[in-house]
Every structure is written in structure tokens, then in C-alpha cells.
Specification:
By secondary structure, the chain is mainly alpha-helical. It contains 3 helices and no strands.
């Protein structure tokens, strides 16, 4: 009986790690268009490195937390899922507070430039 429980725990742990990895990849995939715009298409050719310093880690952590929230919901751990939802909200708040997730600034032109 002990061997079967340890195997089950190993499978659940592996599934959790795979879920977190997929969440990190999803965060990178969602960050990529914004990151490209911030790094390459900045105002007057300027590069915005805050996109990499702040935006990328926030998106990776947010992707991991979101994926683990879904994993916790599937497993029926409602309190853990609620805590992870709060973590995602905090990460989004930090990202918008740092202006790392708001997108690169676009030049405002009322007349044709």
C-alpha cells in the first residue's frame, strides 16, 4: 500500500511540475509580442529594458501561478486555488503599477507626423 501512495504522489508531483512549466511557457508566449514592441519599436528607436527586467519575470510568474491555480482547482483544493488567484491579482497589480504590463508607449500625434 505504501508503494502505491508514493507512486501516486510522484505522478501528482510530476504533473504539477509539468503544469508549472507549461504555465511559464504560456507566460513567455503572451509576453513575446509586448516584449518585441518594447525592445525594438520604442520611441525614436529607444530600447525599453524595463520590458525584460520587470515584464518578463512578472509574466512568467503569472503564467505559473495561473496554471497552478487550474491544477489546484482540478484536484479540488479550493483554498490553495483561492490563494493562487490572489497571487495572480497581486502580480498583475505590480505589473500595472510598474507600467511593465501596460504596453510600450506610443507617440501621440494629433496631426500627421
Amino acid at each position: 500500500m505504501e508503494i502505491q501512495n508514493s507512486r501516486r504522489e510522484a505522478v501528482v508531483g510530476t504533473a504539477g511540475c509539468v503544469t508549472a512549466f507549461v504555465g511559464a511557457l504560456a507566460g513567455i508566449a503572451l509576453w513575446a509580442p509586448y516584449g518585441k514592441d518594447g525592445l525594438l519599436d520604442g520611441f525614436e528607436g529607444a530600447t525599453n529594458w524595463d520590458v525584460v527586467r520587470f515584464g518578463l519575470p512578472l509574466m512568467i510568474l503569472g503564467g505559473i501561478a495561473t496554471a497552478l491555480t487550474a491544477f489546484a482547482l482540478v484536484r479540488g483544493h479550493w483554498l490553495r486555488a483561492l490563494g493562487l488567484v490572489a497571487a495572480v491579482a497581486v502580480l498583475a497589480g505590480i505589473g500595472y503599477g510598474l507600467d511593465a504590463l501596460a504596453g510600450p508607449p506610443r507617440p501621440e500625434c494629433s496631426n500627421p507626423c
